[in-house]
User: Fold this.
Amino acid sequence: MQLVHLLRFLVKIRHNLRQDYAKTATMKLPKARKRGDAYRIEIMFDGKRYSATRDTEKECEQWAAMKLLELKAGLKESDPLDKPAFTFKQLFDVYLEKVGKHSKSKDWILTQYKTFERKLGDVANMSIHDITPQDLTGWRNRRSTEVKENTVLKEISLYSAMFTYAQKEMFLLESNVWMLITKPVKPESRYRRISQHEIDTMLQLLEYEIGQVPTKPQHYVAWGFLFAIETAMRRGEILSMKRSEIYDGYVHLPKTKNGSKRNVPLSKFAKELISLIPHEDEQIIPQSADAFRKLWERRKADSGIEDFHFHDTRHEAISRMVKIRKLPVEVLAKITGHKKIEVLVNVYYNPDA
Assistant:
């Protein structure tokens, strides 16, 4: 008898669900939007947004109809592909707070955060569950027309790190979609030397003379430029250099780009530059990385010098250490922090025929 009542109850539920589905099918559903080779649809129910990506417009409509039916019936989501909406921008918010602000690249990451929506466009506000390789390939192609390959590669590395964080720390994703796209080809290493004329031009535009005590922001940029050429230190290493890390004859860098600490020997000229710093503050250069970069870029634009980057100072400094000071490669690697000796050999040790 109990079995009969149960069967009647199930039949009734089935009948009600069919009626509800028929009503839902006649409702006006939102139109699916094309995203690359796929389609995406969004519905609102009880103040909440639900979305899904499918191969065809018809599949999107079928999903929306079934989703509304499930929500109205109070059923638990049955489609394992449906995930709670969590946008790329929201992921950046979490990543910035949990990881970015504690990273040695925090200033650069914060700059990326401020320009994120402008650079990513529609992808910035898409759910991380709905972003497809086609979406990212389209962004990569557009971005490659705006900036150089190294910039695109650096941005992809940051965005991919966010998705890995969402996958391995937040458990929101099963895989990282950024790993499914082709990255731009990394350009060859730069071999550019800096001429004395270019050094003189930049110092003039920065209103600085060698031996002058820096007092203005542009003076510290010029000071950093000269110090980089003399020591082969990266811009970020110079900007984060502290007075307590300067010893008699060398600077100790506790944390560098490749994660290792190293000591950088100071030449006579490098020591003279340090002696010119007028303040006793812990931070040698009293400027943020962003302010330093913008001032450098403005003066460089005024110079008219083509294909010139601050990082070229590192190549110039290492070239001088090889050609003038005749430093052996194993010693040079300790100074510059290169972990792969072949990089130094192939780029800097090029004897004439």
